Protein 1
Amino acid sequence: MALLAIALGTALLAATPASSQEDSSPARGDSTLGMVIETVVPSPSGQGYRIIGTDGRVVAYGDATFEGSVGDLALNQPIVDAFADGDDGGYVLVAEDGGVFNFDASFHGSTGSLDLNAPIVGAAGTPTGDGYWLFAADGGVFAFGDAGFFGSMGGQPLNQPIVDGVGTPDGEGYWLVASDGGIFAFGTAGFFGSMGGQPLNRPMVDMAPAPDGEGYWLFAADGGVFAFGTAGFLGSGAEINTTFQGFAITPAGDGYWAVTPEGALQNFGNAGRFGAPISGPPGRDVAPSLERVASFTQPIALRPNPLDADGGGLLVAERTGTIRAWWPDDDRRELVVDLTALTSASGERGLLS
């Protein structure tokens, strides 16, 4: 067991650190310091992605390009969604009030100046890149450019609010998903199942369509993934005790990414890892776990024991003036040095690391 010694009172804690991974490319764009992540937007090739913050900051990894951001602006409302602009490499950020911010992408209108009945919670672009939809929490749908209006749930009773919406691959329909997993299909969008009426550990937060339009994924805040139709289940983050905010699928639909508000990223299936605000092994950006493995008297240092031929022994120095040989596997201990008669641990005295 790889150990990192942490002295806490009389406890010696062992941390098993997450193994590191070399990012395939440096991050480009805004600083990630203090950034609260909203979503992730893949590049057209799927060999990169942009991570989007609620304050409008954008950070690009892999072959995804950085085309600008609103991270240096004072937004009226936070960013709630973002999408790629067709196959051109641009992207669009959408705020909770329906404000639209386009980068190397076309602007076709917004609801930023309107008095909305409910906040915008999701957005999706058309396949041509010449239009987009904005989706509101009450099921309202706002179509711009070549995006068609095919119906909405605005003014209709909902068991739970809408949390996202996505367009069909042919651009002739869209789905809305509620926080309870209820699905509402319009236009050419087919219904392939839902989680409405089923018990969920955490609410839904995101949705993605299968590339052929014959299915979709629903993503929950605990990392749960629910696949319907031709959408394949490729794993989930539900076994990790954390909250996920944004999800995205690869262009081929053979993988997906999940990102936490803090910037930890998990990849599943053939979705590659190209970097993240919080580094870590592939698909496992979680903090090291701590476990109490032994108790000593004010431990101040832990070192490998150079006299241990088997290599498993450690030396533990205690502030009171002792150094003990310790074998973690069986908790065997031997006193090596005793300076207690020559030192005092009161005040700022004693052995110090």
Protein 2
Amino acid sequence: MPYLTSTPTGIAGTGFQVGFGVPGLAHPLLAPAEWAELARPGTPLHWVVLDVAGGPGTRPDTHCLEAAARLRTAGVRVLGRLDIGRGLRTHGDVLGEAQRYADWYRVDGWLLDRCPASREDLPAVRRKVAALRRLRDDAHIVLGHGTHPYPGYAETADQMVTFTGPWSHYRWSQTAEWTADYPPDRFCHFVHGVPRPPPGRGAAPRPLARRRHPVLHRPIRPRRARRSLGDHARLLGRNRLADRNRCLGMKKTHGSVTRRTTVVIDRPTESPCRCHPWSSRLPSSP
């Protein structure tokens, strides 16, 4: 996390600040260090999603209550995760989970995970968002599409997730043209597998003596001298001559070539040789 949230040195400011949203973590008992890192002062977090057990669970969790309280004290929004199942879950089930999030964990908003993106589902999503805002007037609503939805969704919620996937796909992804009509902070991208920056960028690397694995973990082997084009040509010629001698049953002695009467390929079932691919048997020499 520090290599993502730390400010790189030597980069000029552009006036636009990039924030971070965490779509969810393991339970605080399983990942206490990660939850503590989120509440560290100075971390540029916009919001963190609280997912107790695929939702708010059946009863309040004391560990999740403490983690949410620490984030709220640090000035970070806490959002409850609502899985709307691409629009297949009923309106009452979604609102019931949202009410439990508000009563037990006092969340600042909700993430509508697996949100549909088609034009036909837009009225149903608007209805859910309007009902959530009645539970909390200043609720921060994030629509988790995972792709670019129909443009009408941009007027429904505060933010939209328009990409979900690994860094290898994200670096070549493209945005829809209609997104240029809205401010950049309206859109979110869920990216995993982000590589660490190379040495010299971002935070300074640790000294070699304090690293768990040394940098040079293998002995350096001397490199072989590169062959010139003439060396490759001579090597290719020797290989072809050796193949021809093996196929014709010839041998080289003291610089002179002596013909033999035997043939290497003496069975028709064997595959053709490389220098005579048109024949599977070579006739013996007279």
